[in-house]
Amino acid sequence: MRTEDVYALILGSGPAGLGAAYRLTKSGVAPVVLEKMHVAGGLMRSIQRGVFSVDLGRKELYSRIPDVDRLWTEVLGDAYRPYPHRVGVVYHNHIFEIERKYRGVRRGVPWPMFFLGVLDYLRYAIKFRVKPMHNYEEYRYRRRGRRFTRMFAQGFIEKFEGKRWAEMPPEEEVGVQQATLVEVALGTPTAMGQTHWRHPAKGSGQISQSLEQHIREAGGSFHFGTQVSEIHVSDGRITQVYAKTENEELVFHPKHVVSSLPLEALCQFILPNALGTGSQDVTGKTPVGKSTILVYIFSAAPPIFPHAWLNVTCPTTRIGRITNYAAFNGEMVPKGQTCLCVEFFCTGSDPLLDLETEALHTLALEGCAKFGLLAPATCFDHLVLKLPGVDAATKWQDWITDARQQLLTAIRPIENLYNVNRPGTDKATYAGLQAAEAMLTGDRTAFDRLTDPLSDGFL
Ligand SMILES: Cc1cc2nc3c(=O)[nH]c(=O)nc-3n(C[C@H](O)[C@H](O)[C@H](O)COP(=O)(O)OP(=O)(O)OC[C@H]3O[C@@H](n4cnc5c(N)ncnc54)[C@H](O)[C@@H]3O)c2cc1C
Fold it and tell me: Cα–Cα distance between 357 and 255 in angstroms, integer?
């Protein structure tokens, strides 16, 4: 058993862990990173398949946190390229646009469907002016009518969140605002108010590769294939972290610990008896919470549609989202070829998780063919990744549950622990940067205020 004293021990090399390690090395501190996989980046890593280098599912990178936007620009330079960010929705045999700029006010909705949608909007607006709303579905129908809501949002959001709107309570009355006819027709502005979108030419993993290189050059070290196995806490501090490789056990005595491990994984070590910890149930088989399945399909023909991704609102399929990596203005896909990633979002012991790889591939391929998004005869390869316990959420609101809130509260008092795992690659990176700043200055006020999702100042 090898024992080592370290100043800063980073658990997991996700964007949060790498953000912390990068900031520390900039100030001359050499951190030690433990990562159970053989590559850095966590859920931001790229998937290499022959000459293809693609993201893990759909990756939309946000510029909403200036420190992170600057960091990504600094490490990528010209490889951080603008792309059109054209997003569509698949509803039965149609592709509609999210943004008006592509196919006008109707966003590709044929005239008869559009008129029926407007009439339907008026019907629901009047109906719920006189009748109370009983559930969230009715709340949404009141705002935009049933038809437009189903075409543009409902099926996708229900699949993504794993909740049926008809079984959820309506929003607070105070928040209910009737969409105007103009809003119904024109929709909302660009997602999150961001107007310029960029993506690494070789995929999101290019950021983690670049950060890893900088960290190594500045003296930081990475232990890949090394799984954290125990964390000892005494008097409100982490005193020892145990980790295992294939052939040895390592023990670290850290001054500070930064964890980008998924919250449940971290808490399994620190609060083994806490209710709802772990991504699996007591039998170790059934994933608790959300899981994601990714099916990559490689085709020798150019893409049939121009969108970077499609949200699948159509209720006739379990497919949730389809990413088209050739549409990111980069080099993830060789010219004239296509790679689509079909995402399935699962909740609890979803039967999809029991399907064999080939059955999942068939489901994805047939789904894409049915919607006219791919010609099966041109496909020459596929890859299926089942990610039990992995939540594709990018927003705090989609990620937080009562159980997670309890876990966050329980680990908060551990004074040398910086839990930086966050939904959203930018928020995770920012939490890492702030954790490093806190260690370097000896003051964790800003870290707690700006990056703790339970704090009022959370960015
Ligand atoms: C399908 C999908 C789509 C997404 N889309 C977007 C998007 O469009 N935009 C966006 O901003 N975010 C997106 N996200 C979310 C984003 O990827 C995560 O929020 C982000 O990666 C979290 O970073 P992190 O560093 O906190 O953790 P992670 O990226 O989860 O990294 C955790 C690391 O810890 C390692 N680890 C786990 N257990 C151990 C152990 N016992 N010992 C050692 N190492 C361990 C893991 O191998 C991993 O490398 C998406 C996620 C998924 C799954």
Answer: 44
Would you state the pLDDT for residue 179?
Answer: 60
Residues with CB under 6 A from ligand 1: 11-17, 34-37, 42-44, 56-60, 227-228, 260-262, 265, 292, 343, 390, 392, 394, 421-426, 428
* Same structural domain, 260 and 119: no
Domain contains 194? no
Residues 211 and 239 in one domain: yes
**Per-residue pLDDT tens digits for 285-296:** 445 689 999 999
| Structural domain boundaries enclosing 148 | 107-183
Mean pLDDT for 344-362 is 97
Q: Same domain, yes or no, for 123 and 160? A: yes
Q: How many domains does the chain have?
A: 3
175 pLDDT band (50/70/90 cuts)? Answer: very low
Tell me the two tokens of residue 278.
Answer: 């772990």
Q: Within this chain, do residues 124 and 177 fall inside the same structural domain, yes or no? A: yes
Q: Which tens digits make up the pLDDT trace of 248-271?
A: 999 999 999 999 999 999 999 998
Contact 344, 318 (CB under 8 A): yes
What is this structure's pTM? 0.93
Q: Render pLDDT for 415-447 as a digit per residue (tens, 0 to 9).
A: 999 999 999 999 999 999 999 999 999 999 999
Cα(40)–Cα(180) distance, rounded to whole angstroms?
Answer: 47
Among candidate residues 130, 152, 183, the one where a domain is terminated = 183
Instruction: Tell how far the Cα of 421 is from the centroid of ligand 1, in angstroms.
Output: 8
Contact residues for 269 (Cβ-Cβ < 8 A; gap 6+) = 228, 229, 230, 231
Asked whether residue 312 falls in the same domain as residue 435, the answer is no
CATH classification at residue 361? 3.90.660.20
Ligand 1, atom 10, lies closest to the CA of 424
Residue 90 falls inside a structural domain? no
